[in-house]
């Protein structure tokens, strides 16, 4: 499972790379690694070591702290999303009420069903 900090740092790497108009290949060459590794960093799949983050920051012309800007809010949002996911039982369709709700939902015409779905999202405050 991806750690929220790794995901945030990866997004900041990608953001800065795009801002300076650099490809993954170009950044990889400057840092001395393969572009696939940059891909893994940017998705948060692989954790960036401190020394590698230093090299990336230098190559992109920013301080290391740049990659952590806004992290608190991002990590908090990710933790909230995970908590909301955990609030739903793993086998929700084993619940008779949930199953009845799903059957009723799919009995509604599609255009009305979409509107109902949007209403449910707004009422639940889940985006």
Automatic annotation (TrEMBL):
InterPro entries, sorted: Cro/C1-type_HTH (IPR001387), Lambda_DNA-bd_dom_sf (IPR010982), TransReg_Diox_bact_type (IPR050807)
Q: What is this protein called?
A: DNA-binding protein
Specify the species.
Celeribacter baekdonensis B30
GO MF annotations in UniProt? DNA binding; DNA-binding transcription factor activity
- Tree of life domain: Bacteria
**In this protein, which residues make up the domain named HTH cro/C1-type?**
13-67
Alphabetically ordered keywords of this record: DNA-binding
Q: Which GO terms describe its cellular component?
A: cytosol
């Amino acid at each position: 499972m991806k750690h929220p900090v790794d995901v945030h740092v990866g997004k900041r790497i990608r953001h800065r790379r795009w801002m300076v108009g650099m490809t993954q290949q170009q950044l990889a060459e400057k840092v001395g690694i393969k572009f696939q590794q940059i891909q893994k960093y940017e998705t948060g799949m692989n954790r960036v070591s401190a020394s590698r983050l230093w090299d990336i920051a230098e190559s992109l012309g920013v301080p290391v702290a740049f990659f952590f800007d806004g992290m608190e809010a991002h990590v908090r949002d990710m933790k909230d999303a995970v908590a909301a996911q955990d609030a739903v039982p793993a086998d929700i369709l084993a619940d008779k009420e949930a199953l009845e709700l799903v059957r009723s939902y799919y009995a509604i015409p599609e255009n009305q069903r979409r509107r109902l779905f949007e209403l449910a999202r707004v009422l639940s405050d889940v985006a």
